[in-house]
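Workshop exercise sheet. Pairs work together: one partner reads the sequence aloud, the other fills in the structure field after running the prediction. Swap roles for the next sheet.
Pair: D.N. / O.F.
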Amino acid sequence: MSPFHVLIILVVVAVPVIVVGAIVYAVVSSSRRSANQLVAQPFVAPGWYADPQNPGQRRWFDGAQWTDSTTP
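Structure field:
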């Protein structure tokens, strides 16, 4: 087998392997990147809001969670 035939065989085998590998790498890295992105949470300002358990009452929301403070 001549060196030219070996080169042709290498090109015929290597090019598809490289192309498929590049596609797989792009898909995997893209899915990892999107999985690592934070989901934006809507901002709710701290303040007095209708109590979720008792709508006739107001409860303080500190911007992250409901507190024990209530008003009539």
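Discussion prompt: The first helix runs from residue 3 to 36. What would you look at next?
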